[in-house]
Amino acid sequence: MSTIGFLGLGIMGKAMAINLVNAGFDVTVWNRNPAKCEDLVAIGAKLGTSPKSVAERCDITIAMVSDPAAALDICNGPEGVVAGIGEGRGYIDMSTVDDDTSSLISNAITQAGGRFLEAPVSGTKKPAEDGTLIILAAGDESLYQDALPAFDVMGKMSPYLGEVGQGANMKLVVNMMMGGMLSIFSEGISLGLKAGLTGEQILDVVNAGAMANPMFKGKGAMFLEENYTTSFPLKHMQKDMRLAVALGDKLDQPMPTAAIANEAFKQALKAGFGDEDIAAVYKTVK
Amino acid sequence: MSTIGFLGLGIMGKAMAINLVNAGFDVTVWNRNPAKCEDLVAIGAKLGTSPKSVAERCDITIAMVSDPAAALDICNGPEGVVAGIGEGRGYIDMSTVDDDTSSLISNAITQAGGRFLEAPVSGTKKPAEDGTLIILAAGDESLYQDALPAFDVMGKMSPYLGEVGQGANMKLVVNMMMGGMLSIFSEGISLGLKAGLTGEQILDVVNAGAMANPMFKGKGAMFLEENYTTSFPLKHMQKDMRLAVALGDKLDQPMPTAAIANEAFKQALKAGFGDEDIAAVYKTVK
Amino acid sequence: MSTIGFLGLGIMGKAMAINLVNAGFDVTVWNRNPAKCEDLVAIGAKLGTSPKSVAERCDITIAMVSDPAAALDICNGPEGVVAGIGEGRGYIDMSTVDDDTSSLISNAITQAGGRFLEAPVSGTKKPAEDGTLIILAAGDESLYQDALPAFDVMGKMSPYLGEVGQGANMKLVVNMMMGGMLSIFSEGISLGLKAGLTGEQILDVVNAGAMANPMFKGKGAMFLEENYTTSFPLKHMQKDMRLAVALGDKLDQPMPTAAIANEAFKQALKAGFGDEDIAAVYKTVK
Amino acid sequence: MSTIGFLGLGIMGKAMAINLVNAGFDVTVWNRNPAKCEDLVAIGAKLGTSPKSVAERCDITIAMVSDPAAALDICNGPEGVVAGIGEGRGYIDMSTVDDDTSSLISNAITQAGGRFLEAPVSGTKKPAEDGTLIILAAGDESLYQDALPAFDVMGKMSPYLGEVGQGANMKLVVNMMMGGMLSIFSEGISLGLKAGLTGEQILDVVNAGAMANPMFKGKGAMFLEENYTTSFPLKHMQKDMRLAVALGDKLDQPMPTAAIANEAFKQALKAGFGDEDIAAVYKTVK
After folding, report:
1. Fewer CB within 10 Å, N side or C side of chain C?
2. pLDDT for A219-275, tens place per residue?
3. Is the Cβ pair D254, A260 closer than 8 Å?
4. Which is the catalytic residue, given B14, B46, B52, B171?
5. Which of these CATH numbers, 1.10.1040.10, 3.30.420.130, 2.60.200.30, 3.40.50.1820, describes A168-285?
């Protein structure tokens, strides 16, 4: 069983690391603010002193940080992952980062002799806690094989998607579809209510039919309760839709529905709902 | 247990009537081409000689015919339902008809002393056979109560939605959402394929996540097999999306995503795919 | 020179009738509220007592009323145009009416032995006063030829467009393009302002280039002054865009840009700007 | 009168430089392929040996090259503009380049002591020859003042738009509006033709009304002749629309009509019309 390093103990990372420890992995954790490591150490994790020292000590080091800048930060510098990775050890960035950042990190790790995987996830806090994330892995295939036991603990599926970049692409495809679905769902609920149907009637019918899906169940209830507690921030969804449309532009793939759904999310952003849940797109539609 | 008349034994009607007979209802059938009644008679149904005679004889008469013209036709004239309905008996039109047709029939039945329900269904051949249709009932509430045992045999849910017109409105809301979902799904699959992912990878990830739904499973497989065998004809979907957008116009409800998805289906219609399955919208997107 | 009857002396009709009188035509006027006839009589028009009597007396009777209901009203009944039109005289409806209304009137006039033209106009109060309307004539071609001298007084162009219905179709085509242009113009101005350009800079550049057009000059100034004084009510434009999109639906012509511009106008309608000028679409875009 | 250097004698640059020489300016020209300088020298221009030598010799050096790479190329290196610009002399890049390229050049020139203006133009070959370009100047205001006499020769208007970047932004705003207008115009013509109107009738009515503009006149004739001879390549228009939509994304400005028009141009690009004129968008709409 590989020894695992885990960098970044935010909401997502902490839940994932706990699952690894509980599954019996030898886990060494590090976080910029070390106080967040305490709960992990309490259940048996070791405490790392820097990204470099974690990468030196572990077979596979996993990062789950909040943005591209943080992802670069823990890699670079005298105390960064690159300085410690050495020959043949593995580094897996599970953060959501853009193409350029992923390439930069991939190149730096590879040139230092390490193996690299990008592995962004689909799913939020609850699936992270339940170990039911969808892990979109791409990059070094031998590292993917080595990491599978850990992926199996953190997620319910973890397909290998090809070279670095394909994990990010899959995430854009998935999120763009989610955004489009939320947009048409918002319009459908709004139309039905204006026509005199009740929200419960509409949701019951939708939930019973061929369209029934967990997202509509969850977000539909939020629409009717006017509850937009953030599970996935709207501004992040809009960013992904923008990137998906841009990818379509690059690949000469027309995507009118996605383009218009993106505008709906932009409208919500303009209205000041960027930090609320993606469900808040409904507020500008209704 | 009410005696049931059943007018129209096409693909849908035949399956629904068989279920009623098999459930023990006393069913009298009629079809324009009487040959189609044989299978029903063979399992115990009685043979009616005209819509009028069926309506005279049965507590509740159900119609399931192909279009508004046929729906009007079986109601009017000396041998029509209206001539036979009499005081207090019930008539349920489960065909998909427009608002105006539904109002005409509702008024004619009511003026003749009968009770009326519109009850269009969501679901195609398989759910009709399995008794898992979604029945969208609206109109006379006492008739709805009387018809519930029959609805329970034909469908898995049959909410009462209010006055005549609300069944049709719910169907537009549902179909508009389905059309929008198919449009964004087509774009997502197309984008993923152009980016180098495989169709199987994309469908696996979608089917594992919060968006997973029976329609994507079914239609996604059809996309990849380039199989557009008609289950729900594309031209009917486009008609419903057009009517949904028109309803939004009437109710001052902006629906940009629906409007654009409607244009995608129009593009498919223009390309000659109107009689293929709704999945054929993918052919003009990819 | 034909004798001309003129029914309807609202803002548009009055200006058009004055031009006919001033050009030397023998004009008989009628208006529901007869007080509005005084100014016309003062400059030499004769006073009609009913639509019927006007139609009886004049070679060509023109109507310019506010809506389809009024257009039907002056035709029907014992004092209506149809009762007076007789063999070979001409009736020209210059009001903006829908297809069905136009067909009803056309049939009634024709069956009474009269000749019929629909001739909706493009242009508002100022062009009506200046005699520079665009007259979109369709129907009886001999009547068109007879009416040309009068059209030349009221408009700057009056093409003959074919059978009844084509005048209305042309008007939809024209108004749909205007709506689309206003929508993209609103977005362009909004984008430029957000990017730090001034409105004057943008309008100057637009007005100097290949896109320069009278509408942008006029509406652009209104945007910057936040002046939405009604020249063409937004709700009428939205209605025409809706009808244009519906016509495209009927003819299998995809029109995504028009469909989306229609949604922008619906948004403005929902925001309560229906009675303001079409320029008010800018308020929901900016 | 300032001495003028002119770098880049393609279709646009040659026409512009000829106008400067003919207006009496002391012009020194340079082109990567020196053969293209002959016509200029024949009418009195001096021949420069490198971008550096031109920049050293002239008060103001103007560049008009084909793309960002070429724009960077003539600036950098031992023989580039930056090496020769020196204290206080001016450099004006009239090429169409992206933000980043413009910033790089601006910084390099400024650090070398020079003054910089970006001044992309709106207009193609004919306006370049006629001296009726629209010049969108932004950057050093004193250089703008010095360059005005030359701008007046090359263009019909040359507003000063603010700091570096605003010239490019204005160009995006203008081109996005043009793209949107072409898209709605294509739909309108297509709808009218399908409804049975003739192209001539539609264009006549449009050209007579409030929407009349030179672009519709020119492109409308091209639609009807199915002539897509390139004046402005479709792929460049699509690029500008994409950048405009991206700018809107950055500034939280929803732009649904522009987003959808962009998709229409993408559709045309996918169909292989990228090197044809922007009018070719009509081929995918009709």
Report:
1. N
2. 999 999 999 999 899 999 999 999 999 999 999 999 999 999 999 999 999 999 999
3. no
4. B171
5. 1.10.1040.10
Chain A residues whose C-beta sits inside 8 Å of any chain D C-beta: 242, 245-246, 248-249, 252-256, 259-260, 262-263, 266-267, 269-270
The pLDDT mean for chain D works out to: 96
Q: Which residues of D are catalytic?
A: 171
Checking if the pLDDT of B58 tops 90, the result is yes
Q: What's the 3-state SS for chain B?
A: CCEEEEECCCHHHHHHHHHHHHCCCEEEEECCCHHHHHHHHHCCCEECCCHHHHHHHCCEEEECCCCHHHHHHCCCCCCCHHHHHCCCCEEEECCCCCHHHHHHHHHHHHHCCCEEEECCEECCHHHHHHCCEEECEEECHHHHHHHHHHHHHHEEECCECCCCCHHHHHHHHHHHHHHHHHHHHHHHHHHHHHCCCCHHHHHHHHHHCCCCCHHHHHHHHHHHHCCCCCCCEHHHHHHHHHHHHHHHHHCCCCCHHHHHHHHHHHHHHHCCCCCCEHHHHHHHHC
Residue C71 has pLDDT above 80, yes or no: yes
- Say what percent of chain A tops pLDDT 90: 93
Q: How far B160 CA lies from chain A's nearest CA (Å)?
A: 9
Domain ranges of chain A: 3-164, 168-285
- Optimal mutation site among C187, C243, C249, interface B, most CBs of chain B within 10 A: C249
Contact D242 A249 (CB under 8 A): yes
Q: Report the residue from B136, B156, B206 with minimal CB separation from A174.
A: B206
Q: Do D253 and A269 touch (CB under 8 A)?
A: no
Q: How far is B279 from chain A (nearest CA, A)?
A: 14
Is-catalytic flag, B126? Answer: no
* CB-based contact D192 C173, cutoff 8 Å: yes
Pairs across A and B, CB distance < 8 A: 216
CA distance C62 to C195: 51
Using a CB-CB cut-off of 8 Å, the residues of chain D touching C123 are: 209-210
| pLDDT at residue B97, rounded to an integer | 85
Helix axes C256-270, C166-194, angle to 10 degrees: 70
Over the stretch B192-233, which tens digit does the pLDDT of each residue have? 999 999 999 999 999 999 999 999 999 999 999 999 999 899
Interface test with B, best of C263, C270, C273 (most B CBs within 10 A): C263
Does the beta-carbon distance from C251 to D195 stay under 8 Å?
yes
pLDDT band at D97 (very low <50, low <70, confident <90, very high): confident
pLDDT score for C96: 86
Q: How confident is the model at residue D202 (pLDDT cuts 50, 70, 90)?
A: very high
Q: Do D259 and A255 touch (CB under 8 A)?
A: no
CA nearest to C242, candidates D138, A83, B246: B246
Spell out a b/e string for B193-232, using b for 16 or more CB atoms within 10 Å of the CB, else e: bbbebeeebbbebbebbbbbbebbeebbebbbeeebeeeb
Q: Which of C252, C262, C270 sits opposite B259 (nearest CB)?
A: C262
Amino acid identity, residue C36?
Answer: K
Q: Under CATH, to which class is B3-164 assigned? A: alpha beta
pLDDT by residue (tens digit) across A9-45?
999 999 999 999 999 999 999 999 999 999 999 999 9
Q: Which of C254, C260, C270 sits opposite B267 (nearest CB)?
A: C254
Q: Identify which of D79, D102, D13, D80 has the alpha carbon closest to the alpha carbon of residue D29.
A: D13
How would residue D46 be classed by pLDDT, with cut points 50, 70 and 90?
A: very high
Encode pLDDT of C85-116 as tens digits.
999 999 999 998 888 899 999 999 999 999 99
